[in-house]
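Extended Data, panel c. Modelled sequence:
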Amino acid sequence: MGTMKFEVPHNLPKDEVKKRVEQLLQYWGSKYGVKSDWQGEEGAKLAGKVMGINLDASFVITDKSISGEGTDPGMLLRNQAKTYIQKKFGAVLDPSKSLDQVKGNLD
């Protein structure tokens, strides 16, 4: 399989982005069993299966975005996968929501 790239913009401080992304990674871990491993302070690797699709991905937090790449699930599911990732990261990075609101709204 190939690689699918993604980028989600944000305008939050990097430490706040990391806290919010940690919530998302915990959610994916408890819901799908996805394992995450932080690579320093600004990025992580993910591995597992989501809805029957193998996931092997990594991302980096920059001052303006989260960018990464992961396993391309193929032509039929590519758009759904990319939309899902951008929706989930976008929801946790919404500056109008507090960290507590982010925690409660992951489903």
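The beta strands are 3-9, 35-38, 43-50, 53-61, 65-71. This feature is highlighted in the accompanying rendering.
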